[in-house]
Batch of 2 targets.
Target 1
Amino acid sequence: MSDLTGEVVLVTGAARGIGAAIALAAADAGARVGLLDIDADGARALAERIGPAAAWAACDITDQNSVAPAVTALRSDLGPVTGLVNNAGKNAYGDPVAMTVDEWDEVFAVDLKGAWLMSRAVLPDMLAAERGAIVNIASMHATFTCPGMFPYAAAKSGLVGLTRSLALEVGPRGVRVNSVSPGYIETDLLAEYFSLQPPEVRREALDKHILGRLGTPEQVASVVAFLLSESAGFVTGADWAVDGGVSARFA
Ligand SMILES: NC(=O)c1ccc[n+]([C@@H]2O[C@H](COP(=O)([O-])OP(=O)(O)OC[C@H]3O[C@@H](n4cnc5c(N)ncnc54)[C@H](O)[C@@H]3O)[C@@H](O)[C@H]2O)c1
């Protein structure tokens, strides 16, 4: 197991799904964890479950006026931030012609801009300490995608680009930045996706998995905990696939 003793790790979208699993894994590994979500009740419930090592804050990652006070409050509860997981995100099911500019902006605000706003808020602590780790939760859609999810792939590709770009900016000052690209992970978000597809799509998705099964949030969380830890001290600017081998397949 990765060791995060003494680390202060903030996780966005921590109320449920992959974010909740990441928060639990980081706490299990010894970190104090700050849970941020627009779902305040969910974040509070998970913080209570974790206990004194956790604090929570209601936060909309797309709004700098929400990010700043949330990060300040968690910093005062937990101490200077040494780790950040930009996990909050959502699917998009737009049509390239019918989509409005507001709808486009909303996708990029959640799936891309929020990661920069959060990074901007925590980097002063990390740069002052000359150590820190940021992990962005991208997607297999950053590399290959499917019809009907416009423009999710563009936003998640942007998040992998942000990972590389930020890694170059802050690496010389001791901060590592990586991304994780999950495949099909059993969460409410995936259930939402399958509910919008014909019934055979779930079977077809399973058939594409070398391992013959979909992933769990805990299987993403363990890789994120590793990337946050000193065990990954020579890993930066990288995108880690956690997809059961889907991306290794041609067809
Ligand atoms: N589940 C999958 O199969 C899968 C695959 C690839 C990538 N991902 C990515 O993993 C991340 C987590 O996915 P999940 O399946 O756990 O999703 P989820 O919908 O179950 O959970 C997402 C959480 O983010 C929160 N959130 C949404 N918008 C927010 C905002 N503006 N500010 C703060 N919090 C916000 C939600 O309230 C929710 O608690 C997302 O970035 C998603 O794109 C998921």
Target 2
Amino acid sequence: MNIAIIGAGVTGVTLAHALLQDGHHVHVFEQRQTAAEEASYACGGLLSAGWASPLAAPGMVWDMLYPGSSPTAIRMGQWPRPSDAAWLLRWWMHTSRKAHAAQQGAALALTQLSLRELARTNADLGLEYETTEGLTVLVRSAHDRERIDPYLQWLNASNVPHQVGDATFGLSKEPALNRQTPIHTAIHLPRDGVGNCRQFTGALKQVVQERGAEFSFGHTVRAIRPTETGVELDVQAQRTTSLAPLTFDTVVLCSGVASLGLLKPLNIQLPLNQLRSHSLSANLRDPMDAPRSGVVDSLHNIGITRLGQRVRITGGQALGSASAAQHKGVLKQLYAALFDWFPGAAHMSSVQTWSGQTPVVPDGLPVLGATALPGVWLNIGHGLRGWSMASGSARVLADQLVQRDTGIDARAFSAQRWHKAP
Ligand SMILES: Cc1cc2nc3c(=O)[nH]c(=O)nc-3n(C[C@H](O)[C@H](O)[C@H](O)COP(=O)(O)OP(=O)(O)OC[C@H]3O[C@@H](n4cnc5c(N)ncnc54)[C@H](O)[C@@H]3O)c2cc1C
């Protein structure tokens, strides 16, 4: 098949790799000058099946509406408008215990598949990018431990390999942790880890391009038109005003948050919203004072990761477009987490701040597969787990395109799950 991919972030490039392996002709269109310049640019790097920080879980809507009720609450970028009501109502419906359990199960299956696929890609291609093994979740107090008990029960029930211990155990996994900050419980997830998403995407793009995939950087897809035999795309090269119509058998949107604009004229029923999150990156001052791998502060759901000679702190989630005041508040929290856990780790003069947006739907699961429009497929909506889910999503889509068994039950991710029954 002749397949177009819109977007050269981590989901677009991993999909290009999977489709090429199946013998398809692949053409990737990317509006920026290189790969991984949007949400995949400075993400936390956590590659995790075991730290499940879902978008939709019991109590989350309450926590959002009553700031201060929970330090991990998702915020609204702005006060909800009447047009947000339908989305928020759907979100609330997906926060029931039953819905949450099903969503957690589906997300776990996809991330586990993804980590297996990523390991296979690493073994096959020997890509060079920064990685470390293991993830340690830190719980500060008995009260916080109570709050995360359902998570520990879920780890046990789902057979996710993990070890639970006290402060000494936590320090054995991450010896540079600040001894002044109390640790009540440490949970270690040996199968999870950290990887530099941007480096990986760039390295994989290189291989995929050498193996025959076409990449058109500085090219923006302006419109998608289904035709009788496939799809037509209007593509605009940078610094030109003309649109070149190009035809393909199929197009897959891996276009992140910009998918909202591309899908609107197509009238596809998909309740997409955007989620913004933030990161701080700084050069290491002394590697001995830095994390070995990935650490999560469970109180604020903040990740602290080691990426080569840098440390990155990520957190804060806001639905819709975040205000400047919120941005400042989140950055303050990220600095505080770094000083609490690894006070001597970073050269503070080298700090770079960043925020990125990803699309989300109310159940917090990605949207993978064929839409109701022939030839138009989606690989979007991964929220804050896109790096962890990219290789699995690519596998699922590549299998579905040739009607091969996907190995996991992918119905929960269907791009048509929002269609009303006739
Ligand atoms: C602060 C932060 C921390 C995160 N931490 C983690 C983490 O620790 N672990 C994890 O698993 N995930 C994490 N994520 C989530 C992860 O980064 C994203 O889910 C993932 O990068 C999404 O990749 P993508 O390829 O779908 O989107 P993007 O990287 O945004 O790529 C989409 C691409 O499409 C291009 N594009 C859009 N429209 C067009 C068009 N019309 N024509 C041509 N090109 C177009 C864009 O330019 C862009 O390059 C984090 C996200 C943020 C913001």
